[in-house]
Specification:
Blueprint lengths: L2 H12 L11 E7 L4 E5 L12 H11 L5 E8 L9 H10 L4 E6 L4 E5 H4 L7
The structure holds tetrahydrodeoxyuridine (THU).
């Protein structure tokens, strides 16, 4: 699967975002080495702090469904320039998919790629 196809998956699931508070919809799609895709969107809550980001939703789904090695993660939102994963999502990405290509996109078609390790150097570890 190409980066463009993975971004398209993320774009599709973004439409399912539950974002009544921020109105900011995010979609993410995780690709594993077997070619399977696990998608997720942000899910907000009236108790704002328990909101789940799209990237973490997709990664949790991948784990629960028995994904093999994660090779790429696409994320998309309606931002000026490619959307950037938040700090919490970077911590999740780097632990579950340190070498994965993180494909950051926006609705205008702008794309940037970095590894999870590049996005979060000097990360927390136990
Ligand atoms: N959000 C994500 O889904 N991913 C990120 O990396 C940053 C933020 C969501 C959370 C919230 O629903 C909305 O975007 C605004 O912060």
């Amino acid at each position: 699967m190409t980066d463009a196809e993975l971004v398209l998956e993320a774009r599709r699931v973004r439409d399912r975002a539950h974002a009544p508070y921020s109105r900011f919809q995010v979609g993410a799609a995780v690709l594993d080495a077997s070619g399977r895709v696990y998608s997720g969107c942000n899910v907000e809550n009236a108790s704002y702090g328990v909101t789940i980001c799209a990237e973490r939703a997709a990664l949790c789904r991948a784990v629960a469904e028995g994904a093999s090695e994660i090779v790429a993660v696409a994320v998309i939102a309606d931002t000026a320039g490619p959307v950037r994963p938040c700090g919490a999502c970077r911590q999740f990405l780097v632990e579950l998919a340190p070498k994965a290509r993180v494909v950051m996109a926006n609705l205008a078609g702008e794309v940037d790629v970095a590894t999870a390790e590049e996005l979060l150097p000097k990360r927390f570890r136990m």
